[in-house]
Design goal:
CATH architecture of the largest domain: Roll
Shape: elongated
Order of helices and strands: EEEEEEEHHHEEEEH
Number of helices: 4
Radius of gyration: 18 Å
Number of domains: 2
Distance between the termini: 36 Å
Strand order of the largest sheet: 4-3-2-1-5-6
CATH class of the largest domain: Mainly Beta
CATH superfamily of the largest domain: YopX-like domains
Structural class: mainly beta
């Protein structure tokens, strides 16, 4: 079962709080290891996914995404052969590298690439068995829109 939790920036302390969310008129309250009132505009839901380093991915996070060619698919390996290979074996050359913002829209988490001619996509398109994916995606949380908005401008 997917873990449902939220993150928000404290109203008084400006610290991040993670846990269950109770919304209020002026923001919300996060109940977790510690309890804190949070600013409404900073509240983001956990996607249930983690980046390449095991860091949890939340709504409003900024990801560095790298797309690699899948050599196994390119050279015509069948599914049974691919299952025996490691991701390192099938990952080919780097095709693209870009930053993207995660947001929630109409019941889905969306990846919005910034400053590159790429379409928005559902986050679920980027997860799963990358050995059978074309391209192979690698993603890393590098910040969030509230603490690091400059990350989306400089790239």
């Amino acid at each position: 079962m997917r873990e449902i939790k939220f993150r928000g920036k404290g109203i008084i302390t400006n610290n991040w709080f993670e846990g269950s969310l109770l919304t209020t008129e002026d923001g919300g309250v996060i109940y977790g290891k510690s309890v804190g009132g949070v600013k409404k505009e900073t509240i983001g839901q956990y996607t249930g996914l983690k980046d390449k380093n095991g860091k949890e991915i939340y709504e409003w996070d900024i990801l560095l995404i790298k797309e690699y060619k899948n050599d196994a698919l390119y050279y015509g390996f069948n599914y049974e052969e691919i299952k025996e290979l490691s991701l390192k074996d099938v990952r080919g050359e780097l095709k693209y590298s870009y930053k993207a913002l995660i947001h929630y829209e109409e019941g889905c988490f969306i990846v919005s690439p910034k400053n590159i001619n790429r379409c928005e996509m559902y986050i679920s398109e980027m997860f799963g068995d990358m050995k059978c994916s074309q391209p192979i995606y690698e993603y890393e949380v590098i910040g969030n829109i509230h603490d690091n908005p400059e990350l989306l401008k400089e790239y």
